[in-house]
Amino acid sequence: MEIGVYVVKKPIDRVNEAYSDVLGNAFGEKVRKRINWICSKVKGPNVLDVGCSQGIVSILLAREGKNVLGIDLLPEAIEYAKEELDKEAPPTKELVYFENANFITYPYGERKFDTIIFGEILEHLTDPKEFLIHAKNILSSNGRIIVTVPFGINDYFDHKGTYYLGDVLELADGDLKITEIKFFGKWIGAIFKKNPEEFVTLDSNLMREAEKAFEKIERKGIEQKLDQNRELATLKNLIKEKDVQIKELEELKANSVNQLTTEIDRLKEITENSTLEDRKRLESATNALIEEKKSKVILQQELIDTYKYEEKLIKSYKKLSKKYNALSKSKLGILAVKYWQFKKSLFRGK
């Protein structure tokens, strides 16, 4: 017996297509906001784009005169990025180098980077701090690390961790500090620097920003849940109506079939001595019976399709409810309680 080996392969991130609205205008707007923020925070001429995917960030930076090394584990992603780069003007092509490589094992030599980008990378790692420490070692003295990760629950088979505000703040370690935090709906961004004069700490202002970002996510979840409830109610009413219609049609067809069967049997008895007119009547009755049976099959299929659609909606509703319940019991919910305790102690007596 031959045993098959199944490999779960990570699908290519379609960030270039999302940036260009190929995956929808609303999603494209969100992706552009995040990518444009990353590009606006890049400092210095030498950039390392880790997990560059289809290459959009690297190419955008090269258009602005940055020297960019883009690396990714997926050869398909690098191939796509190179094809996109071939469409650029010669000055841009000269500034970008894409390579299928591993960030940890890549031979950087003495090369240092002014900015290192981890765009939606850390959530795929079991030990994200190892990546940050390695990045710090190849960072120039005044360099920075730009990180973006999904904010809150974002179910994906290759995600190793969920990031809330506290999880991002905990990535700061030793002389590597966070100097800026940015919320993008379902994403959160952070800038890390070595030994900065000023850095981010958890205070009431930052907590308010996190609460506002989380409120938007919660509000969207509630709206989606209400929309699904309305759609389910409409669907259930439609199914009830169809059930009544089908029952009436089945009764009507049962009577029609009985009548047609009786007529056919009668006509068959006189077939041998039948006239042309009798044969036509027999043929017409037979065709009518066939059409009735076809109609019944079509209605049964419509009912089956309706039930399948209802089952799909119910599964989607349960999945959304699970996410919503998880969000309400998440670290950010617990963190919000701590925030109000912090606020109470901060303003006590004032």
From TrEMBL:
Print the keywords alphabetically.
Coiled coil, Methyltransferase, Transferase
What does the record list as coiled-coil region(s)? Answer: 232-277
Gene Ontology biological process terms, A to Z? methylation
GO molecular function list: methyltransferase activity
- Domain of life of the organism in this record? Bacteria
**Residue ranges of the Methyltransferase domain?**
43-148
Q: Name one Pfam family in it.
A: Methyltransf_31
Query: What is the name listed in the Swiss-Prot or TrEMBL entry for this protein?
Result: Methyltransferase domain-containing protein
